[in-house]
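User: Good morning. I'm curious how glutamic acid would be positioned relative to this chain. Could you predict the structure with it bound?
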Amino acid sequence: MCGIIGYVGAKSAQHVVIEGLRRLEYRGYDSAGIALVGADGLHTSKKAGKLSNLENELAAHALPEATTGIGHTRWATHGGPTDENAHPHVSANGRVALVHNGIVENFAELRNELIGQGVKFNSETDSEVVAQLLGKAVENKNLLDAMREVVARLEGTFTLVAVDATDPKHVVAARRNSPLVVGVGKGENFVASDVAAFIEHTREAIELGQDQIVQISADEIKVINFDGTDAETRSYHVDWD
Ligand code: GLU
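Assistant: Good morning! Here's the predicted structure, ligand included:
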């Protein structure tokens, strides 16, 4: 289980992401982290233990204000619940920050391939291979196309959410056998593992189907299938409290 959120809009992304993660706490977790991207690039903070540990870290070492961000609560499956293994994971070239819920079954072969290419890993997680693959892929394509290229190489279950240090306007997410919903706001949009993460901001949601990728900006939502074709989605109104 555990939780994921991504935000693009006009509000403080740090505030939206931390409050969203708090509403996902019921799902259980052992560490938490956040990545913000703005005009001055990508900044991350992550801590083992409770969300309050991350908040204390952010109070002690503040990140620059940004209106685009992603957040994660982790339930460790590969690598212990340490600061290093907490998400987000940043690619070696500093281009991409990625959060992942689920398991990448074929991570060992992908990791060996990347190590063979000289990539240095900073964690013991299966998830970091996705950050490293995405980091390489965005060197010659946008984050949406890079995500499409990378998910084709993954086996297992995943909700993935990523940002590109050079593109503060977009958050890109993908899902396979793991939950992901889009929150449709006015001048702001969300992705999350559960509508609870953004219910405070909007009650309009889009349910993603299996094997789909979504790109959000402040005023646009684009959903495609893993094969690149336009995706059919279902919009709905959340009417519970
Ligand atoms: N398998 C990943 C890890 O151990 C993600 C776990 C999760 O779903 O939070 O880091």
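The chain is about 20% helix and 35% strand. The chain has a mean pLDDT of 97.
Let me know if you'd like a different ligand tried.
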